[in-house]
Amino acid sequence: MEKIKKQICIIYHYPCLDGAYSVLNSYSYYRNYKSSHNLFFIPIKSTSSFTDEDITIEKLMFYDKIIILDKGLISSDIDIIKKLIVNKISINKKIKILIIDHHLTNLKLTMLNFEKEIESSNVKIIYEAGKSACGLSFKYYKDKLQNKKLNSETKLTNDNETNSITNSLTDHFSKQIEEVLYLK
Questions:
Q1: Taking Cα atoms as reference points, which of 69, 67, 76 lies closest to residue 102?
Q2: CATH topology for 6-131?
Q3: Is the confidence at residue 166, as pLDDT, over 50?
Q4: What is the CA radius of gyration of the chain?
Q5: What average pLDDT is seen over the chain?
Q6: What does the pLDDT read at residue 91?
Q7: Torsion-angle region of 90 (φ positive above 0: left; ψ -120 to 50: alpha; else: beta)
Q8: Which of 3, 44, 71, 97 is deepest in the core (most CB within 10 A)?
Q9: What mean pLDDT is predicted for residues 27-51?
Q10: Half-sphere exposure of residue 77, counting CA atoms within 13 Å on the CB side?
Q11: Which residue would you say has higher pLDDT here, 89 or 69?
């Protein structure tokens, strides 16, 4: 029986290099290490709301995870996301939300509106002023790979082949993204 692929929606700021490279980080991670996921990309202008771009609850409710990159959210966007989070619509799954951003306005609005939802653990907000969304997303995915590496080394300390594969994947991913970002 074929495993059902998880559906991931990536909403990102466009046209913007920070948004584009943030998407590249997500794409590289999921294509190289989570190939059992289907990715869907939705570019959105910074001044547009989800509804301006026809991003509705009905469309978003079919995803298992929604990633929002480098997009300053406005009140109507947050209303849509909150309805998904608290399952005020009739769906039988908990949708995970990941927001990676650096805009000060987004921090104030998002943190105030998601305070209770953050406690419920299906919302993760990565925010740091003075950093780019691209740099934050790179660090997020790199840390995920390093944590996987540590977990596999702990569980499989006697399995050198598995550790070798994990090490090479982590190295490959880091090198690929660092080259794109000119971090070398």
A1: 69
A2: Rossmann fold (3.40.50)
A3: no
A4: 17
A5: 76
A6: 54
A7: beta
A8: 71
A9: 88
A10: 21
A11: 69
Contact 50, 76 (CB under 8 A): yes
List the domain boundaries for the chain. 6-131
Tokens of 14: 């466009």
The pTM of this model reads: 0.75
pLDDT (0 to 100) of residue 95: 84
Q: What is the 3-state secondary structure (H, E, C) of 13-24?
A: ECCCHHHHHHHH
DSSP the chain: -PPPPEEEEEEEESS-HHHHHHHHHHHHHHHHH-TTEEEEEEEE-TT--TTTTT--HHHHTT-SEEEEES----HHHHHHHHHHHTT-S--SSPPEEEEEE--HHHHHHHHHHSHHHHHTTSEEEEE-TTS-HHHHHHHHHHHHHHHHHHHHHHHTTT-HHHHHHHHHHHHHHHHHHHHHHT--
Considering only residues 23 and 159, tell me which one the structure prediction assigns the higher pLDDT.
23
State the amino acid at position 5 in one-letter form.
Answer: K
pLDDT digits (tens, 9 = 90+) for 43-58: 998 788 888 888 888 8
The two three-digit tokens of residue 19, written as one number = 């948004």
- Distance from C-alpha of 118 to C-alpha of 128, rounded to nearest angstrom: 17
pLDDT of residue 132: 93
Rounded Cα–Cα distance for residues 10 and 63 (Å): 10
